[in-house]
Each structure stands twice: as structure tokens, then as C-alpha cells.
Amino acid sequence: MRYPVFVLLCSAAAVLRGQDEVIQAAREGSPSLATLLPSSIAALNGPAKAGVLTNGQDFLFALNNDAAADAAVSVDGMLRPLAKTGNYWYRLEKLNAGMTHKYQFFVGGKALAPANDIGGYNPDSFARPGVPQGKLSEKMVITSKLYNGMKADYWIYASAGVDPAKPAPLMVWQDGAGMINRNGGQRLLTVTDNLVAEKLIPPMVQVLISPGISTDNKPLRSVQYDTVTDTYARFLMEEVLPEVEKHYKLRADGYSRAIGGASSGAICAFNVAWFMPEKFARVHSTIGSYTSIQWRPDEKLEGGNVYPFKVRKEPKRNIRVWLSDGADDLENNHGSWPLQNIQMANSLKMREYDYHFRFGTAAHNGAQATIDMPESLVWLWRGYDAAKTSETFTMDPSEKDKPYYRVRISNRDAW
Q1: CA–CA separation, 129 and 270 (whole Å)
Q2: Model pTM?
Q3: Most buried pick, 87, 96, 282, 339, via CB within 10 A?
Q4: How far is the C-alpha of 269 from the C-alpha of 284, rounded, in Å?
């Protein structure tokens, strides 16, 4: 399942100093804001051309719309008027960092698009002076035999401290093109740099790989990500990682390998670890599509909707799982994302997996993952010891005493 990701007003080339300049101009009501916003708005998506620039507790809501009617933004349920500069409407708000906020733009009293979520970055998501940056490769392309000539883009990010001649820990991320922007999205690269410098995670090689395109130019994302077979795991092991090892040596043990993704990329990550726990033992899953997207009963193909029950009834895998979702996630003909993620959490708990479940309020976007990124990576890699090649993951004792997750209806009468 594709998922809308909130976008920053700054482009990939923007730096924090530039963000500060735009926010300072908005704070002062400076005429320069009208000239600063056009270059900042280039990365915006959607017909409304609207988005949010964040820096600490400063959230700049901006809308490119020349309508004469008044414009407003609803933030966490409170409607606030927007000021006008040139063709742009804007409002600067002080909001809590480290949590998600729901917003929606209005013009003339009419909503321009459904409500979206924005996450307030935590301190480890900001670049710090003196922290060594890792090295991001150029875009590379792999042609797959397993997927009949499919081509997929990928990038390699090596943390500072990675020695190309010495096997390094590995983390693979699906939807890789969305992870390479240092100043946008989940800021994976910046978070990684900071956590490595703090010695909270080991220096590692990260493979950021995009879904492939078939020889007849059809996207294969769902086929690759949502199908419950070992094909994608084999694709990584047999085709992708040998190419990566032409640049960096990798640890071969699952203890030293993690895999992550969002939406269909999340079930893909779980799928890889489920079929090959000896090769990937750490899973990072956000807004996971544990639903029936690729369920094909006539072809005897399982869909992700079976995973809560596979976890309960099939042999336990030695894996560690970070799981997160939001109460406003998707509900469609494939299933219910919130309910399936709760089912996954309860199933993992029932079998005493080493897991953590973060359930917020956000919809199907990257807001929750953004605020969680520093904490989730530290949790996933906690206790890592380069001298070891294995560990039996066990449930945290504090989790054993907690109840199963229960659902209460909050948006209508329960009878």
C-alpha cells in the first residue's frame, strides 16, 4: 500500500540555516517571507500545494493559493486564521515536539484536502556540529533474475566508522528513495549519524532500496512487498547483497542485521525476517500493511492478513520487532490497518516475542515513524555486541506483566 508522507517546505538541498531564515521571517512578519516561500515550497505535493516546515517547536504552515477568500488551518482540532504574503497563506505555531499533530487547510470555509499529520522532530533528528556524517552512494540499479528482469534503484549509506574491509552490521530499508533526504521525511541519515556518534547504535551499512519496475514498465511494489513468500528475502540475499558487498563487507549473522519499512514496506520487512530469521533478526515496522492486499486464494497465495495467526500458531522465530501504527490508519477493502497491527502486537505478546508496540493517533503517513526514529533504532539495536554472532531474544520482563491491547470505540456509540 502506498502511503502519503507529510512533506517539509524545504527541498532536499535546503539546510537548517535556511529553515531558520524562513521561520524567522514568518516570526517577524518580514516582507522577505514572500520571496523566501517560493523556493521553499518547491517540494510540496498535491493540488493544494500545502505543507509544513518544522524546526524544534516552530511549525510553519503554508499554503500556495491566490484565492480572495480567507484561508485557515485546523491544528489539533483548533481552527486558526492564516496571514497572506504574495500568493501564500501562512501561520507560525509553537507546538510540542516529539508528538504528532493533525492539520487541515481551509479556504472560504471549505477543506482543500483530508486532514494530515506532522511529526515534531526529536533532538536526535537535527544535525549537530562536529558529528561525522556517513557516506551516501550514488543511485545504483539492479536487474533481477528472480523477478524476471525487474530493475530497482538502491543506495548505500555507510556510517562514519565503517571500515570497507571489515564486515559491518547491516540494515535494509524498503522504499529507499524516500529515505535519502537528510533534511526531510524521517531524517534517517541524520538520526543514524547522531546515534552512532553517541554509541547508541553500531556503525553500520544501510541499504536503501526502492521497489522495482517490470520489463513492461509496471510497478512491482505490492507484488514484492505484500506477497507472503520467501521470494523477496531471496532477492535480497542472492542478488542485492552480493552487489553491496562489492563496496562494503557485511556481517553474515542475523543478529547483526535489521530490516525496516513502512506500510507495505513494513510487512515486507517482517516477511523477510519470518522466512529468514537466521539472516535478518531485527524488524522495524511502521503502519504495516498486515492486510489482504496480495491474498490470492484461487492461486493458493497467502496475504499479510494471515500474519497475526501465523505468529500465534507457527514455530516461534528468534526475532526482535518494533511495531507502530495509529488509530486513524486505513480502513478499506483490504482490511483494517489499526486492528491488524493491534492483532500483530497481541500475537507477538502471546508468544512472548521481544517486541515493542507504539500506537498513536496518526493516519497512514510517516508522522509517527518520524518522531519515533531515534528511539526505535536504539531499541532495535540495544545491547548489540560486535563480539557476538547470536542472541536468543526474549521478552522484556516489564512487558510480561502488561495486559493485551484492547479496543474501545471512541468515535460513535458502542451500541
Answers
A1: 36
A2: 0.91
A3: 282
A4: 7
